[in-house]
Amino acid sequence: MTLLFFLFLLSLASSFSLPSLPGRKKLLDSLTYTDGGRIIRGVRDGEGLKIIDLPEWLAPQSQVESTFKVKVESSNLTSVGLLFKTLYAVRYRVLLSGVLRLANTAIQIVPSLLVRAILRSVETTASPTNLPTSALSSFFSSLSGLQLSLLLYITLSSKVLVENAFFTTVVDTSTKCRHLLNTLVFENSFSSPFSLAAPVSGAGKKASSVNATTLSLVTSDIPTVESLVSQVHTIWDAPLQVFIYTKILRSTLGNCVNKGMLVLLLSVPISTILVSLSAKIRRRSLRWRDQRYRLMGDFIENAKVNKITNAEESIVKRVEGARRREIILNLFSGGVRSLNSCVLGATTAVVLAVTLATKIREGGVLKGSDVFTAVGIFNQVRFPVLFYPMVLSSIADGLVSARRISDVITAGSDYRKVLDEEEDWFRPDKSRGFLSQDVDLVVENSFSSNNILAVVGKVGDGKSDLCKALANRVTTASYFEQDVWLPSGSLLDAVLFGREFDQTEFDRVLEISQLKEDLESGLLSLESECGEGGGSLSGGQRARVALARTLYFSSEVIIDDCFASLDSRVKMKIAEKLKASGVRGAVVTNDWEVACQADMIVQVAQTDEGVGKVLKIGKPNEFDRWAEGEDRGGGEKGKKVVSSSSSSSSSSISIATPDNNVDPEAPMVVRTDTEGLESHVNNTSLEEPGSQTLLEPKGGRRKSSRLTTPTLDEAITTKVPLETYVKYLQAVRSPGLLLLALSSYCLSNFYQVYQQSLVAKFSSGATSTQISLLTNAAICVAVAQFFRSLLTTVSGTIAAQNFHRRMIKSLSKAPMSFFDTNPSGQITNRFGKELDTIDRSLPDQMGWVLTCFLQIAFSSVAIATALTPVAIVPLSIIGVFYVKITSFFRSGARSLKVTETKTRGPINQLMAEAKRGNMVIKSLEAEGFWKERFRVAQTANIKAFYGIKRCDRFLSVRLESLANLMVFATAVLSTKVAKNAGYAGWGLSQALSITGLLNWAVRCLTETEQMITSTQRVEEIIDVEPEVDVGVLAPEHEGLLKSGWPWKGAIEFEGVNMRYTEGSPLVLRDFDLKVGGGESVGIVGRTGSGKSSVLLTLFRLMHIHSGTIKIDGVDICSVPLAVLRKVIATIPQESVIYTGTLRENIVLDEGKGEEDDELAWKALNIVSPELALKFKEQGGLAHDLGGGAGLSEGEKSLVVVSRALYARFKGAKILVLDEATAKLDEVTERRISHIVGQYFIEAGITVVAVAHRTETLKGFDKIAEMRDGEVLREKRVAA
User: Fold this and answer.
1) Residues 857 and 982 in one domain
2) How far, in Å, CA of 793 to CA of 330, rounded?
3) Is 934 helix (H, G, I), strand (E, B) or coil?
4) pTM of the predicted protein model
5) Strands 669-671, 654-656: pairing kind
6) Angle at CA 340, nearest 5°, toward 740 and 1004?
7) Which residue segment(s) compose the domain that 522 sits in?
8) What pLDDT, in 10s, does the model give residues 865-917?
9) In this structure, what DSSP letter does residue 1087 have?
10) What is the pLDDT of residue 637?
11) DSSP strands (E only) in 593-661
């Protein structure tokens, strides 16, 4: 004890000297966490994570990790099994933490006994006949008050060291478990076969549903298991504490303690019921929160489509509806939690009152020493008693989470087992699959024969399924995924994908993928950022970069339609280069001309039983071009094929130039045959960027008020301005509510101190009146704590709701450039984590800060009142050191906490990317590269988290030592100047309560500073500059809508100039185009010519620099955006299906009556009677589409066309098609073209189409060719 005491004094003195002392012992450093101070200084000086040295066992890829992985993979896991193996991997640390926990429990009992001895010494001085009877009491009675005080200080100091050692060991152990499980889940992404998201049956099906929630495992389930590991010792320690404390109470007050303990035990089920009820309500609230998240995902990810379809208002209403339900449930949950707070607040005082009343009835004598010993012990024993059921509930939650994790980990082996037992090589669901012999046939005619085999068929016939089956079979082949995915990073990184750079091979793949021209022209560079999922590149650029990645150092390929996003010229060049390169494998395509470039063609279809089947394999000259309307007899879909001539229309009109090449100076040639139109379009690049590339020859990159991470980091790492707190309080919008909340906090702390003062008077003998006063005070504390908790919840909810309402309103009016330049994850995070912080965590944390500092202030006053005003002097001196230490700690803690948050981002991102790019990563054998990236990310996160915890321990040791000095000073004063044992006990109990408060207050304050920055983040959304909108009709056009505007749908672009940002080059230059009412116009042009920019200006997604755009003579800038976009129907390239019902996807909540439902059904029946029948059997318009998860691409496109047709029935006079059929097969394309022709063009609706395929332009009145933002030529075609 003495050694520890001097070591502790030395460490306390050293904490104030900033320079490190090289001669310090490792024991001293370990006990006093001096490395925490070194970390703070290093972080403050800008050294970052370099200053943090991880223990070898805690670092990723340690021997512990390797052993754990082997043990997990060598057995069939259950939830208990996974938990046992996780704990076994860190068994020595678990054992060490158990020993420390036992030692800490033994030590923390001693201060109560010493306090009793000190108080008895005071009583002995006042009354010499009051002598102790036990041996321990006799020993204590032989010591003077000063000696007892010094022994109390040494005991508390020892407790500080042991307790902090325990917490350090537990946190390190649970952290290691978290990262073990993170690594296991991440690497499991590469252990399952292709398309595990849709396995065959049995265990695979269960696993598939879990696999879809990988990120949920990382953000929810693994932290739950981590929490379980940290609480594992509470299972045995809590009952042990209750037993020991009960024995001490009985030795102090006798058997009257039994009734008090009975009351305490009766409060347990009440608290348990309230906690369970609150959790149940909270779970219902979370379901609405998840619904809100899904809707916000629709809102953010489909921002462009939302605007042009005028769906924003509908989604906003649904988001606000979900949010209202979420808030109502949160308030109910908060009310129940407030009741529980009321129970917890009153428990100790009520238990004490019952115990003391029983003692008085039994004729016992109450002494101040016994009463305050009982108060201290009751306060200690209530925590293990009341919170033990919560610990058991937490363990149950941990087991559930462990089961979810084990299901994911075992999913791969279960799936492979099912595959081995099934006849099918691949069956992603009940309706589709390919038999093993068909897969063998395809392999034989492609990989085994050194051929390129083209896979053709219609949408839904299983082409992509066949590719995944091939990827499972031919594991050496590089896989190109239809839904192109690129990881974040540069173009060079995307192509290399962790492989070594080889100039010759790199040049070869650039040549094949046609990227060389883009690089030479400056459209792209090797340093160009691909963005999130390739979002900074156009669709065609993404496809070509992914193709280059697939071909790099690979001679075997499986390409699932890389041609859908490419214009005809580029796709034909790639097909020719691909054939000449000598690669072999399978290539999916919907383009007949591309298919004819292959060595062999395989046609697939789906049988009536829903099984994918190979219909025919042969050379291209053995096939006729497939067409719509084939005979589906014989039980096989798509069995009959017809010649290409039968699908051509002799009346089709086109424009072409000599030699099938576009010549800007050549005269326009009008033809009346399909071949001419195909020649024109095939030689005109129709590839249009979905968003601007990093390096552009024209127009530049669109910019907006970007959510810049450096700005956020600066705001967090520096002192939070007072203005931020003011804005948060202003969001409550009720000064009266805030005043009531503050009053409840003050009253709660006042009555707690008042309770202690009543107990202090028991030293002269307690009466029934005093017991009644104590009970009444307990009721006052309970009521005050109830309102304190409730008002805090209500205030926080109101503030969060106001922030949410302002955010969603601002986001609905944000310009398109805002969504283009800000990652969807950043925006979504504002409505997720940041709003949740404002909603729940921030109010509670601010409440704790207020509670701690109020209690410290009240306790300081109580000490001075109970003992002597002179006590303020040592308290003030300690306060000075307290401020100095906390200021030093907070200077580095902010940066470390920000760093830890930032280092969690890459882990989640890599998890998401590994899940999303699973097939690509495995096919390119890049697992090692990605595992190394994950290891680096984990190391950074562990370092940051470890640094935070070392700093926390550094702070805890020093602040608790200061509090111990305060206890020591109070104890000495108690023995010298206290009026009696009651007042001495009051002063000592207040000093002991401050011990934990000093440390807890600083942590809460630091957390509050971190959390309050969430308001800064959401303010960024609120402050986004809205898109320009007149809001109401200009006065001269007020009667337009009443008169039926637009009357004909005539569109006129006159001298339109448009640029994306101020100072950037013009994208549209003096653009002139007239479209008569009821006319159909196709717009074509090379990449970057400005085709899509024309549509952006028509929808006013981009503001024009000069010129006018008129519809039926009315300048669209004078028309409110909602009105303008309502009269224009659109069929975009992306078939967006929203979260919600079929009605919400077609009607978009425009109408409320039966007439709207009838129009929706009419539109769907016209577009696809088969699909309408299918939906009718599944619940009609109320059928939940689930965001399109159960629909094929063709079915999604038909729903989108139904949406446009419904808009036409509701009065839309203009239809816009933006490469609407680029990703569809020819059959689906012809169906959509037929609907456009019959129900729009023939009905007199104005149609403007940016074309990608010839089918879309057949029958149009005229074609306008664009170049460099101008109409190069415009020609009306003959009928």
Assistant:
1) yes
2) 9
3) helix
4) 0.73
5) antiparallel
6) 65
7) 422-626+635-641
8) 887 788 888 888 888 888 888 888 887 887 888 788 778 778 877 887 787 78
9) T
10) 36
11) 600-606, 612-618, 654-656
